[in-house]
Amino acid sequence: MIIHLAQINPIVGDLKGNTEKIISTIRASKKEGADLVVFPECALTGYPPEDLLLLPHFIEETAFQLQLILSETKGTGAIIGYPRKNPHTGEKTLFNSAAIMMDGTLLGVQDKILLPTYDVFNERRYFESGTEVKLWDIGGKKIGITVCEDIWHHTEAVPQTSYQKDPVLLYRDLKPDLMINISSSPYSVNKPSIRFDVCSKAAQSLRCPLLLCNQVGANDSLIFDGHSLYCNRQGELLASAEGFKEEVLVVDLSKEYTPFPWTIKTEENLFQALVLGIRDYFLKQGFKSCCFGLSGGIDSAVVACIATEALGKENVTALCMPSRYSSEASTHDAKVLTENLDIRNIWVSIESPFQSFLDLLEPHFEGKPPDTTEENLQARTRGIILMAFSNKYGHVVLSTGNKSEMAMGYATLYGDMCGGLGVLNDVTKRQVYELAEWINRDKKIIPQNILDKPPSAELKPNQKDSDSLPEYAIVDAVLEDYIVNHLSPQQIAEKHGYSLELVEDLVKKIHINEYKRRQSPPGLRVSERAFSKGRQFPIVQKWV
Amino acid sequence: MIIHLAQINPIVGDLKGNTEKIISTIRASKKEGADLVVFPECALTGYPPEDLLLLPHFIEETAFQLQLILSETKGTGAIIGYPRKNPHTGEKTLFNSAAIMMDGTLLGVQDKILLPTYDVFNERRYFESGTEVKLWDIGGKKIGITVCEDIWHHTEAVPQTSYQKDPVLLYRDLKPDLMINISSSPYSVNKPSIRFDVCSKAAQSLRCPLLLCNQVGANDSLIFDGHSLYCNRQGELLASAEGFKEEVLVVDLSKEYTPFPWTIKTEENLFQALVLGIRDYFLKQGFKSCCFGLSGGIDSAVVACIATEALGKENVTALCMPSRYSSEASTHDAKVLTENLDIRNIWVSIESPFQSFLDLLEPHFEGKPPDTTEENLQARTRGIILMAFSNKYGHVVLSTGNKSEMAMGYATLYGDMCGGLGVLNDVTKRQVYELAEWINRDKKIIPQNILDKPPSAELKPNQKDSDSLPEYAIVDAVLEDYIVNHLSPQQIAEKHGYSLELVEDLVKKIHINEYKRRQSPPGLRVSERAFSKGRQFPIVQKWV
Question: What total of structural domains would you count in chain A?
């Protein structure tokens, strides 16, 4: 039996386009002799479709497109994820289902049982839980079919939730010959390894081989890494698709495979994820070119490299916008970087509009000493210039602030926070340096000085980030333990030997800057807990 | 039996402050001879606490504060909403519960059964459903206790959800003498009436009187209107608390009440809601003063009136920032309005920084005709000036765009969309006019000319909104049917006799401007479906 795992990159809501992609994949696979072609969770709608699921005409059209696909399965079979109208009255009107099609006939459907409702997932908003667990007789084999989360509880890999059912155990009792899992499981740094582990453990418990078909591609903030795979009943890896690109992984169940170890390349994967995140954000909306402010600092340097890889050097414009406080070194470093990347480089001094604002406001601010007002004026003047280039040339502005800065509020709203996409919103300062080192692994693309000099916003004379913040290593450690692990300030202070005062101050900074982050561009999610819809804290609150 | 419905305004996360408020209320009620003091849903934490609920130390502290309250109930009784740790292993670690305290003893808890997970509600993210339904013997009466949503399904007043249990019917079988519902039910224009209807129907079905204690106050986007009430077994209204303010409604069950009809004042309530929304956003964060751009148009005029009512005239600064395109009429109208309101009025012409930007960009934009770039430059220059006043004086910027404009993208990101709070984000253009008329009911506060002249952004010569948009009446009708009623463009076109092309164009505008709204300031929610967390559509999608 030959099974094709079609790791496709659908566009959310593009029912016609996704259907065409599914049909052309089925046709190609049929030609190559596939007995079954497997598509990801919600392949027809793209995942996550969010509130499109609440539009009745969207659900009707999904059902219509599914019928078009059905007739294409003559001579083969297909398993396709889609939102299915709940035929009964239930708490919710939909199931998150897999359609099982053989030879032009709909054999039936398998509904997702465990509905993730935590972090970025919100499936209880739309879906009813499936209840039935059964095996499907396909090609003489008894096959179990599960949708994503259904195999995750078994490994206790689900945060903040302890489902009261374990579908893996329910299926084990049925003694399947094979388990197929269709997923739209988003990337975060350790996720590909955790996912392999989940598959491996499920296969071992089920005592049968397991196939995972995962969505690839980025939709808004979420990046899906693919990494579809085949493992044997011992949980050993037999075959896997590449990450971060479309691929049809061909699995021949009758063939002998040599198991090989699961490996991932952390920095390379992170880089690829961000590249895919930018590329899909642009491609899927029909944008081609980007611009961003290049300061001579590490963040914008790394963004320049990622954007160049994602969009091609001809589509990248770096705007250097020096002020009276910009150092010569930064100016020089920025220039060298754009030469190394061979990208367009435009120089616009902010001096004249900045001075114009200062003059205009002087009579109103008389007697008040300079403060962050004047620093923000510079950042916002740069924001206006970036947005003017965006408006005039159709470039999408990339914002370059990193997660550690966003946590601390070390960014100017409507200034450097301007943009259509926050490339590094979920990348900590430490990871930014790791990415820079990885980018420079063969060739010095980012000038060494950018990696060596202390971080500075250069908004007043001789400013350094460390003037007003502790080292980023401390910020990052507190960030991880507070926003991912939910430790209390006391627990964090004890764990790391920091003073309670220091930790409480950082935690307070995280919370009081919630209002800023609420207005930041959507950021690419690459961690277990990003500042985005996966973390929903009130702006107005007095807990912290 | 004398019951006090304590319609309090807690601050989210302020466990100590809320506990103090609860305790002082209990003490006062005890003095006045109350047998029972009832507090709203999640009164201890404020509602909605959102992801604070995921912090273990927050939940521990909540339990600790509840113990402090318990000892204060000696000689009386209290029912208090709070998140309760699930003592068993369940899908989620919490229940949304009511603690029932009598004479210093915790009689027990009643867990919320129906967990709203739609629109702005996300309770399945945190809570496990309660299962038990029972009566409590208090003061010789058999009392049923429910939490908010538990009485709503009975009237089929719940959108996108059809719960499989109806607690009202379950309680009816137990034959209660009285039903007490604790709520944190947010305001929207028709909600107070719907809520009364829900209570009335529940009382009739239960064949017993019903007491509702609802939270009052604003938390982030949500405004809670209070309107706690007492109705008899015929569902007739016997007593009700005022809307939009704290109040203890005293109900004497042994007393004869004369039923009176439920009435609401739509425009007055909307005005009060927005006033409360601003006031609590400021008070609960410790802000005192606001500023905003006053253009001479209707939106900023209405915001000026609401802000003055909310914060006091001494805390309101209107910034008039004319450009070469500002009409004399607008300038004059803005001036008259600030005189009528007696608020601070500062004039800052944007001409010099605007010209400075034009000069700076000219060599880069050579040969390109003027377009929205230059319009946005003006709006963004104003945004910078507003933010400079905000930074220098600690004023929070109010943004003044209305819902119809936000829907159409008729606003400049980082320009007039700057702000800490979007006062009219969820108020349609039609409602803005209705508010203006209501504000002017006794005295011409808003100059008539502002109400009469056609809407214009005044960003180019003789510009009118109607140059690029259909009438707002059409926009508002499509908005309502598309985003609230989820009708398809076809259905909307047929319903109103509009051309399909027109409707599709407006619907497309709604979707392509999702990216802008994602970066708008949080707005006060006053409709059934606001552009906020209650409406979760992807930015990148190809359905529309």
Answer: 2
